[in-house]
Amino acid sequence: MSERRVRVRFAPSPTGPLHIGGVRTALYNYLFARQHGGDFVFRIEDTDSSRFVPGAEEYILEAFAWLGITFDEGVSFGGEHGPYRQSERREIYKEYVKQLLDSGKAYIAFDTPQELEAKRAETPNFQYDARTRLQMRNSLTLSPEEVEALIASGQQYVVRFLIEPHQEVHVHDLIRGEVVISTDVLDDKVLYKSADELPTYHLANIVDDHLMEISHVIRGEEWLPSAPLHVLLYEAFGWEETMPSFAHLPLLLKPEGNGKLSKRDGDRLGFPVFPLEWHDPKTGEVSSGYREKGYLPEAVINFLALLGWNPGNDQELMTLQEMVQLFDLSRCSKAGARFDYKKMIWFNHEYILQKDDSEIAAQFQPILKEHGIDEPLERVEQVVTLMKGRINFVYELWEQASYFFLPPTTFDEKSLKKWWKDDAPTYVAELCDFIEKSPVFEGAALEPLVMDWIASKEWGVGKVMNAFRVTLVGAAVGPHIFALTDFLGKEETLRRARHALEVLKDVKEG
Ligand code: GLU
């Protein structure tokens, strides 16, 4: 038997911004598809118009473009199995609903919401199923003429799946193994609603997976309870042969590990749960996103890849290419994955280190512009080279390195207390004179001269150089001092130091 072509899909409902868990699901599908040289389909499941949110589809596409997750087919990508938006597939679903009705695998039900409510109130744990369906108003209890008359009179109805009681349903899950449940716990799910002429999620999902020749359904654990119903639907249509393999990914857990990750955890601990910033069109509420918070897409991808999967060794940093090679559904865990957002910050740091300084400089340059500083890229790059080891986010370069571009206007009290005492003003004044007269200024040549000179004066190197540093930076922080003076140049170095001497004239000795 020839191997089936691998075709997977990501099928979000456009009900709002894409949750980070959805991004992980898409990533695993992507890795699986690429590893097998298969296809990755982007389908929009928008049959529930009451939950439709404008802008959500565009948001999802923009998020994947940012993350570098690519699709081969689907909404906005085209392909031979379209349309890929379920709201554009009404006529297709109607055919399949009819097929189930004709074969007696489904039936028409007229019960109004009020009638269902009344039934629920009178029957504890009411479930629309083999035990109760004959007490209800449906095509099993009404005559064909009555059914026809009701439909002709414009009565709204739903189509329900007829589930046979006392059967075992087997779901073969590539992560969880075989999951067996009894049909007795399932209800006769609504598959279609006449009111909007649209199927529900379950029917549309199965019909589309079949027609789009999906070979593997990789999705979040929250869909595991639907899987038995989906298996039964495949069987009802006679599509057992091409039923996809299932893989239900582990839940994402709170950073503390207790319970499901929610948006509130992000708000509480200060991390986004969405890839991009989201502006809710109804409430105007703004939710933060990884992109806007300064995360690199590579870092987000690498972090997510390891939430529920590992390559079987300790390797943590991986390129997308490596992930494609190493990914393995059978190495995905069943147990929930703790969302350790601090680890994501670590990944961001690591990816900043890996990136070319020029690339980081190109991201830092606009931040400098916002602060009114217009520096050529190569100057910005020099600062990046000196400082990027200390940051987790590019924007932190401003907090950590603004003094490269701006002379200090204030002086850190603690640093003054520690270093602006004894003869600090004398050290700095004399050092300025020494530097001014020195035939060389470049750090590599200047440093040994300064060291010899300090030794000849019998001063402490620490005392002199830290006092000097405070005048250039405004605090006892920063890179190697001669790297800083190289960047500033002779004129600016002396100007800063002498200006500080003026400003600090009245500071009491510590
Ligand atoms: N529309 C569902 C969602 O929003 C798809 C679930 C599935 O992958 O079957 O996630």
Shape: elongated
Poorly predicted sequence stretches spanning 5 or more consecutive residues: none
The main sheet comes to: 4 strands, antiparallel
How big a fraction of the residues is strand?
5-15%
Overall average residue pLDDT: 96
CATH superfamily of the domain at 89-249: Glutamyl-tRNA Synthetase, Domain 3
Return the CATH topology of the domain at 89-249: Glutamyl-tRNA Synthetase, domain 3
- Helix proportion: 40-55%
Integer-rounded radius of gyration: 33 Å
Structural class: alpha/beta
Largest sheet, spatial ordering of strands? 4-5-8-9
CATH hierarchy: architecture of the domain at 89-249 = Alpha-Beta Complex
**CATH level-1 class of the domain at 89-249:** Alpha Beta
**Ligand inventory:** glutamic acid
The helix count comes to 19
Head-to-tail CA distance between termini = 85 Å
Total strands: the figure is: 15
Architecture overview:
With 510 residues, the chain is an alpha/beta fold. Among the domains are: 89-249, Glutamyl-tRNA Synthetase, Domain 3 (Glutamyl-tRNA Synthetase, domain 3), CATH 3.90.800; 407-503, Orthogonal Bundle (Arc Repressor Mutant, subunit A), CATH 1.10.10.350. Helix content is 44%, strand content 11%. The chain has 19 helices and 15 strands. It has a four-stranded antiparallel β-sheet. β13 (278-279) and β14 form a beta hairpin. α12 crosses α13 (377-387). The chain is elongated and about 110 Å long. The model has no long low-confidence stretch (mean pLDDT 96). Bound molecules: glutamic acid.
